[in-house]
Amino acid sequence: MEVIQSFTIDHTCLMPGIYVSRQDKGFTTFDLRITAPNREPAVGVAAMHSIEHLMATWFRNSAAKDDVVYVGPMGCLTGMYVIMTGNYTVEDMRRLTIECLEWILTQDEVPATTPSTCGNYLMHDLPMCKWECRRYANRLRNDFHSEYSKLQVTLKDGMVFADA
Ligand SMILES: [Zn+2]
After folding, report:
1. Phi and psi (nearest 5°) for 54?
2. Can you identify the CATH homologous superfamily of domain 8-151?
3. For 4-125, where are the alpha helices, taking DSSP H only?
4. Distance (Å) from CA 18 to ligand 1 centroid
5. Domain limits of the chain?
6. What's the rounded Cα separation, in Å, for the pair 101 and 132?
């Protein structure tokens, strides 16, 4: 079996911030961690859906748009993944993400929330989306974290768990 760069993170001490989740095949996957996993409520599913629409829209229209590969939510609802090409550091992503969050806070609707443009167009929550984005922006400004504690989880058949 192919050896993959793979680890999971110790979620018991993970703080909101921006982390490099993985770097391979010319891409960097950034972990935009919005809440403290298992110690704070996860983002509501409808609010997270709205964050996805707004954050993806902003990144794909930003100065960095040519390097944006993917923007999407984590299954655990505690953060977003942003995959980039090029040479972006967590400090670059911190600056871009704060700019993105500030833009989200000025919005009074979630883009593309019609049956033809979204797979679950009624499942949105802009007020809670903005509440999460406001708190996350303040944390990125004032209490920034970017260093993981890593763990490796091996399954019974020898496969190594990967969460992204
Ligand atoms: Zn949608």
Report:
1. -75, -45
2. S-ribosylhomocysteinase (LuxS) (3.30.1360.80)
3. 45-59, 90-104
4. 24
5. 8-151
6. 9
90: CB partners within 8 A, 6+ apart: 18, 19, 20, 30, 146
Query: Cα(34) to centroid of ligand 1, in Å?
Result: 19
Tell me the whole-structure pTM to 2 decimals: 0.92
Question: Which amino acid would we find at residue 68?
Answer: V
Q: Is the pLDDT of residue 1 over 90?
A: no
Please give the mean pLDDT across all residues of the chain: 94
Q: What is the pLDDT of residue 6?
A: 55
Of 155, 158, 152, nearest to 7 by C-alpha is: 152
Interatomic CA distance for residues 128 and 143, integer angstroms: 21
Residue type present at position 41? P
What pLDDT score was predicted for residue 9?
Answer: 86
**115 CA distance to ligand 1 middle (Å):** 9
> Do 59 and 96 contact (CB within 8 A), yes or no?
yes
pLDDT for the residue numbered 41: 97
CA–centroid distance, residue 53 to ligand 1 (Å): 6
